[in-house]
Specification:
By secondary structure, the chain is an alpha+beta fold. Helices cover 34% and strands 34% of the residues.
Length: 537
């Protein structure tokens, strides 16, 4: 300690009047700077991360969506869209891989946008609302079109020509490419198969053969099928084909329409197939548990097998299933098979850590700096009658608070994080109601119960012995201003007022302790308590 003037002339709690002036001015500037930093640091870190992410932390996305796959020329063709975190969207690429060796991929052409792929007899069609062309003999040819398509379904071949369903407010339009332009061929009013279902059309998809257009319409959670002859004005006879899940894909298999769909993750993410036969729609496949919400199906030419591609919209990996006689007999991956942790978007953790991690360190640094200044300018002895005792430094109090937070809040945060990760990864696959209770309510109830029990225990131990686990480790304790145990009631008041002292990650509480006469935060003043050093430590 230093003495700037006669100690008897010093303001209470300070070594001298000069020390008080210097300390309060410095502490005020530091408090304002750290308070401002609480707001600016997250934005600065996020801006730095965004600007330098492509150099210091590369997060590449090679999105491979099963909706933009097809089977053609003895291989899989798909559209791969690449992007990097903190970078602009990159052009998409047409890629080919072999049916048997899916690990060997070969870029074929650069594309604009993300078109659907449609396998034709002698060429591969690439179709989107605002772009159109074909791939043939290792060359992509863009076709300029005077007419832009509206909202379209996945394309299909109608009488050997590319066709799509355009969706308008009250009808579907069959639009066929006639070799020069997209030509509207027929319209079908959108009529709900069950007028009282209270739902609108969600998705419309189709496949076609010599019998006509096999339409599949999703209303609510039900998928309806109807055979439509575009050259007749009659409406199809609708049949309930399946209950929908996350996604579904129609296919013609063994001369009959079929549909493959992925059920919701609440139902285990099963791949389910139904097929129309002489006795109506029957389920022929139920397979596995898939962490997926997208599916596309193809019937391989010259074979009785079906190929199902399943994946997610954010993933770079697509699972390939070959289905024969109602069972999956071969499974492979296009892209690396993801691990459980890969399913969880780990880059989000990095972003959150960059944005909020620094603000957690701010109050600790402020406490360290102010503790050093208090040793130079303030008196660390508390007097009560004839008794006096050393007051606890901000360093010790901050460390004790961290220890108590880890004990009381750490397990809850860890449990919520694990269950959120499990929910994202599809690990939790109980029925919907139970899963919702597990994933949502269990962490909330656990947090409330654990937090309440920890707070009650810490409050009781502070009132009775003046300690918590953190205070015991750091050698400090809470006493009344008479240097006697404060009791449960006063300890409760003290802890309840952490809601004020805890503003801005306890910057408010740290500043109040540093500037108050008896090193008290708001909770200490209200409860008439002080935090002191154990005499033996």
């Amino acid at each position: 300690m230093t003495e700037d003037s006669n100690f008897t002339d010093a303001p209470r709690g300070y070594l001298s009047a000069a020390s008080k002036r210097r300390f309060t001015l410095t502490a005020g500037i530091l408090g304002a700077a750290f308070l401002l930093g609480q707001f600016l640091l997250p934005f600065a870190l996020m801006a730095w991360f965004m600007a330098s992410g492509s150099h210091s932390f590369e997060v590449d996305f090679a999105r491979r969506n099963p909706k933009y796959f097809t089977v053609w020329d003895d291989g899989f063709f798909f559209v791969e869209t690449e992007a990097s975190f903190g970078d602009e969207q990159k052009p998409s690429t047409l890629v080919r891989t072999h049916l048997e060796d899916t690990a060997d991929t070969e870029p074929k052409a650069s594309l604009e946008g993300t078109p659907y792929l449609l396998a034709g007899n002698d060429r591969l069609w690439l179709i989107a609302k605002n772009t159109f062309g074909y791939f043939q003999k290792d060359k992509y040819v863009h076709i300029n079109q005077p007419k832009m398509l509206a909202e379209i379904s996945q394309p299909f071949l109608f009488e050997g020509r590319p066709a799509v369903l355009e969706r308008w407010p009250n009808e579907l339009a069959l639009v066929v490419y006639d070799g020069e332009v997209w030509n509207p061929t027929a319209n079908l009013p959108i009529v709900m198969p069950e007028p009282d279902c209270g739902c609108g059309l969600h998705w419309a998809k189709a496949v076609a053969d010599e019998k006509g257009v096999h339409l599949f319409l999703e209303f609510g959670s039900s998928l309806y099928y109807g055979l439509w002859d575009p050259y007749l004005s009659s409406e199809p006879q609708w049949e309930l084909a399946a209950e929908t899940g996350e996604d579904w894909s129609p296919v013609l298999w063994r001369g009959e329409p079929a549909v493959l769909g992925v059920t919701s993750r609440n139902d285990g993410g099963r791949l389910v197939g139904t097929r129309r036969g002489s006795e109506g729609w029957k389920e022929f496949l139920s397979h596995g548990k898939h962490n997926s919400d997208l599916v596309t199906a193809f019937a391989t030419s010259g074979s009785d097998s079906l190929i199902a591609l399943i994946g997610t919209s954010y993933s770079s990996s697509v699972k390939v299933l070959e289905i024969t006689d109602g069972s999956v007999h071969r499974e492979s991956w296009i892209g690396e098979q993801p691990t459980e942790f890969d399913r969880f978007p780990s880059f989000m953790i990095v972003i959150m850590a960059a944005q909020y991690g620094g603000t957690i360190l701010f109050p600790i640094l402020l406490a360290v700096i102010l503790s050093a200044l208090m040793r130079r300018h303030r008196v660390d002895r508390f007097h009560s009658g004839e008794q006096e005792i050393n007051q606890a430094s901000l360093n010790r109090r901050a460390l004790a608070q961290l220890v108590d937070l880890v004990i009381s809040v750490g397990p809850v945060v860890a449990a919520i994080g694990l269950f959120m990760r499990a929910a994202w990864s599809g690990v939790v696959d109980e029925p919907e109601e139970f899963r919702e209770a597990v994933v949502v309510f269990w962490p909330v109830l656990s947090a409330m119960a654990w937090g309440l029990l920890a707070s009650l225990f810490f409050t009781f131990s502070e009132g009775r012995w003046g300690i918590t686990p953190g205070k015991w480790l750091t050698g400090i304790r809470v006493l009344g201003t008479d240097l006697q145990p404060c009791g449960f009631g006063r300890a409760l008041v003290r802890n309840l007022l952490k809601c004020i002292d805890g503003f801005f990650n306890f910057v408010v509480g740290i500043m109040v302790v540093a500037l108050s006469e008896n090193w008290q935060r708001v909770g200490d003043m209200a409860a008439r308590t002080v935090v002191v050093r154990n005499s033996s430590r």
